[in-house]
Amino acid sequence: MYEKYLQPEKNIKLEIQATPPYLSFWGVIDHIKDDYIAVDITGQYVQKDDRQVNCIIPGATRICFFQTIIKGCIDGKIILSMPKPDDINVIQRRKYARVPTNIDVNCFLIGINNKKVNSNKTFPATVMDISGGGVLLNSKLSLPVDTLLVFELALENNSFVLTVKILRNIENMADGSWSLGCKFVGIDDSDRQKIIAYTNKLQLRMKIKSTNI
């Protein structure tokens, strides 16, 4: 299924794990060989060592996502190592818009590998972004996909107790932390609507701020 996404002239988003730990920009696939993908970008890109990168190729209803290595830049084109077919994922496009946040939370682990966990211990994490469908957590712990977590989150005048399931787990090579992509589980519809209202309000603020710059 991924073959129709890995094509010349396809737009591709590169999320590079660097210092600062998050650098994101768009490019266009120029050509593809057996062992690499060449991406044309606007401007210049320079690196000394190989860097890990998350790659997103959007489609009409689905998104192609994979993680690979930037080997360097040749003739103004970024050279990506060709990922293994098993490492290329095609997923449904996001139903909800997401906005960046930076909110510290304490997480309870309540389920792992389809088994219930009874523990009062918590671990710290940071909510890096949020949407009506879930959150992106940053944590020092690596947890497997399908792990269930519970945490309390305050957004302006509302407080939520949220249960989430980890859908993806990606290591951030820059600092050794882990990005945990999570979806809400069993969320009350009124709570979801409050979160959507918060994200819409924050998006509007960001748009107004960018317009005034």
UniProtKB/TrEMBL annotation:
<keyword id="KW-0282">Flagellum</keyword>
<keyword id="KW-0966">Cell projection</keyword>
<dbReference type="GO" id="GO:0035438">
    <property type="term" value="F:cyclic-di-GMP binding"/>
</dbReference>
<dbReference type="Pfam" id="PF07238">
    <property type="entry name" value="PilZ"/>
</dbReference>
<keyword id="KW-0969">Cilium</keyword>
<protein>
    <submittedName>
        <fullName>C-di-GMP-binding flagellar brake protein YcgR, contains PilZNR and PilZ domains</fullName>
    </submittedName>
</protein>
<dbReference type="InterPro" id="IPR009875">
    <property type="entry name" value="PilZ_domain"/>
</dbReference>
<feature type="domain" description="PilZ">
    <location>
        <begin position="92"/>
        <end position="199"/>
    </location>
</feature>
